[in-house]
From TrEMBL:
SUPFAM superfamilies: Cyclin-like. GO terms for biological process: regulation of transcription by RNA polymerase II. Residues 180-295 form the Cyclin C-terminal domain. It is found in: Nucleus speckle; Nucleus, Nucleoplasm. SMART domains: CYCLIN (SM00385), Cyclin_C (SM01332). The lineage of its organism: Eukaryota, Metazoa, Chordata, Craniata, Vertebrata. Its main location: nucleus. Residues 69-171, 184-268 form the Cyclin-like domain. PANTHER family: CYCLIN. It comes from the Eukaryota. GO terms for cellular component: nuclear speck. This is Cyclin L1a. Belongs to the cyclin family. Cyclin L subfamily. InterPro entries: Cyclin-like_dom, Cyclin-like_sf, Cyclin/Ssn8, Cyclin_C-dom, Cyclin_N.
């Protein structure tokens, strides 16, 4: 149960027992944990869950870099070993290939990965210390004077969020949280190449390896390949020649394409601008609002939660206009007298609609007018 090809690896390497394991009176499925299935296939690297929620690749990369820098800085203040900080950064990358930055706070997840990594590498720290260190880093980032963390309700809420995030990381990674680091592998390979006494080469390769933790190479390549790439890059920078006939990295199972891919990905870090925490936070908040509005729109609601008018079936509180039921006279002539008589008849029709019929009292003069209208030349009127 992990990222990548976990089901395929389970089917290939686990014992063939489709019924599972019988414990007591219940049958449980097998759990297959191995470092081999912790890598993510290339086809699953894009689009990421964050990209599906509207976050662009550049912003997501900045969030990954910033989260790893927080873990590295917090680990130094907590005096954790480098392997613990490296483990926390790899777990951070793995988690956000299955979950979105829009739906999960990267700072809370960074704390959870830091706390979990300290336990994995047998250097546990109190969760209060982890929160306190991240609080201190937030103040330094905002260039504010350091203020001690107050143990109020906000602290309790943050602590609960970190605990839940740690459980969520374990669940998403299928409890496959072991990380194979290239630190010792670099030294071992340099011993094979008889270059272990060159401390500058060893330290430079280690530095490149620590910097590559901010990228996604640890979820794409094996630790042995990353070690070869760090040695290759350090030797090129220091202009140290290594065996080339055949190429030395072929001895360790690495290919030239993989090494160049890792080197290019690592070198791109040094050409990027430093991530801006405030701008990234605003971008994530904007995507959260857009995602929430899309959900409300799908449910037929306005952004404030009220029902949309389009979902009310065309209902309108306004009254509908009434239709004129009395037929109008038909004009049969274009003479001036015909037009005048037509206007007079139209006026009478309107009066008939307004005044009830039982209130009409026709005077003698009105009867004469009606007679003249009926006998008028070129006109005829139709009455109900």
């Amino acid at each position: 149960m992990s990222l990548g090809d976990a089901p395929m690896a389970t089917a290939a390497n686990a014992p063939a027992n489709s019924e599972g394991i019988l414990i007591g009176d219940k049958v449980y499925s097998e759990v297959f944990l191995t470092i081999d299935n912790s890598l993510i296939p290339e086809e699953n690297l894009s689009p990421t869950p964050s990209m599906q929620d509207g976050l662009d690749l550049y912003t997501e990369t900045d969030l990954r870099i910033l989260g790893c820098e927080l873990i590295q800085s917090a680990g130094i203040l907590l005096r954790l070993p480098q392997v613990a900080m490296a483990t926390g950064q790899v777990l951070f990358h793995r988690f956000f290939y299955s979950k979105s930055f829009v739906k999960h706070s990267f700072e809370i997840v960074s704390m959870a990965c830091m706390n979990l990594a300290s336990k994995i590498e047998e250097a546990p720290r109190r969760i209060r210390d982890v929160i306190n260190v991240f609080h201190h880093l937030r103040q330094l980032r905002g260039k504010r004077s350091p203020i001690p963390l107050i143990l109020d309700q906000n602290y309790i809420n943050t602590k609960n969020q970190v605990i839940k995030a740690e459980r969520r990381v374990l669940k998403e990674l299928g409890f496959c949280v072991h990380v194979k680091h290239p630190h010792k592998i670099i030294v071992m390979y340099l011993q094979v190449l008889e270059c272990e006494k060159n401390q500058t080469l060893v330290q430079t390769a280690w530095n490149y390896m620590n910097d590559s933790l901010r990228t996604n190479v640890f979820v794409r390549f094996q630790a042995e390949t990353i070690a070869c790439a760090c040695i290759y890059l350090a030797a090129r920078v220091l202009q140290i020649s290594l065996p080339s006939r055949p190429q030395w990295y072929l001895l360790f199972g690495a290919t030239e394409e993989e090494i160049k891919d890792i080197c290019v990905t690592t070198l791109k870090l040094y050409t990027r601008k430093k991530p801006n925490y405030e701008l990234l936070e605003k971008e994530v908040d904007k995507r959260k609002v857009a995602l929430q509005e899309a959900k409300l729109k799908a449910k037929g609601l306005n952004p404030d939660g009220t029902p949309a008018l389009s979902t009310l079936g065309g209902f309108s509180p306004g009254s509908k206009p009434c239709k004129l039921s009395l037929p109008l006279p038909v004009v049969q002539s274009n003479s001036f007298l015909s037009i005048l008589l037509f206007a007079l008849a139209l006026l009478l029709s309107i009066v008939t609609l307004i005044v009830p019929k039982h209130t009409h009292t026709h005077t003698k003069k009105q009867k004469q007018i009606d007679t003249k209208v009926e006998d008028g030349p070129g006109c005829s009127f139709l009455y109900n």
